[in-house]
Amino acid sequence: MLTMLKALLITPILAASFVTLAANIQVQPVSQHLHILTEQDYGTNIGLFKTAKGLVLVDPMPGKTNLARLFKTVSEIHHKPVTHILNTHNHEDHSGGNAYFMARGAQLVEGDAKLAGVTRVMVKSHTSTDNVFYHKPSNTIFVGDVFDTSWHPTFYAGGVQGFKDAIEIILQVGDEQSLIVPGHGALSDKTSLREFRTNTLQWVETVRVFRQKGYSVEKIMAENESKKIVARFNVQGKVPFLPDTAYKRFVERTIQVIERERSEGTE
Length: 267
Ligand SMILES: [Zn+2]
Description:
This protein is an alpha/beta fold. The chain is about 40% helix and about 20% strand. The protein has ten helices and eleven strands. The protein has helices at about 1-10, 15, 65-80, 90-95, 100, 160-170, 190-210, 215-220, 225-230, 245-265, and strands at about 20, 25-30, 35-40, 45-50, 55-60, 80-85, 105-110, 120-125, 130-135, 140-145, 180. A hairpin with a 2-residue loop joins strand 1 (about 20) and strand 2. Helix 7 packs antiparallel against helix 9 and helix 7 packs across helix 10 (about 245-265). The termini are far apart. Bound molecules: zinc ion. Zinc ion binds near residues 91, 93, 94, 145 and 183.
């Protein structure tokens, strides 16, 4: 059943299966156990599921002005208040709604969740503490911004090694049918996560080689090989994909990671 749902979810038909309960918050019913809520313009994937201890929200941030709308959407789905909040990492676009829900009775669960059906693994890639949550009843893995299907990879805290370790650990969670919820972008699966890893490592290698040849940031940006790899991260076919400022920063931050790892001798 989940496989069928998942197949539907990751195809373009998805758009048609969205149910809009409140303006701009899209609700994807993944299974009887799980909904993914996403504010159209804000884009963070918010998980909503029920446990024996209550109603759980993962990364409840649809933008500061949309919190009341998120609250209302949750009430319309479950007719119950949110009791627990989980954050994949401590960045505003994921944790920015904590206070709003805590003021309304929810509790932020840090450390090990102790929620039946939920397990946590810690990795270091996007930030120094990235929480990966596995929700067993829906066979879903919340990976935060370790994996993003709407943007280029951002592995700046953990570097190449942290990124590789994180992906390897995520691949060991659940099974081949597990649904993967990236921090932003379309819901995904392990096959796409492996492709993301391949593309990311190829990106780093390409930048490394260009750097060794003495290329400037601008020259690296202009190379066809660089553009070709970056385009592979655009799995949703967005036009345009990366603004030039973001592309430039991606090259610069990749160079920083490469130089940091070289100086640490972990290359
Ligand atoms: Zn994010």
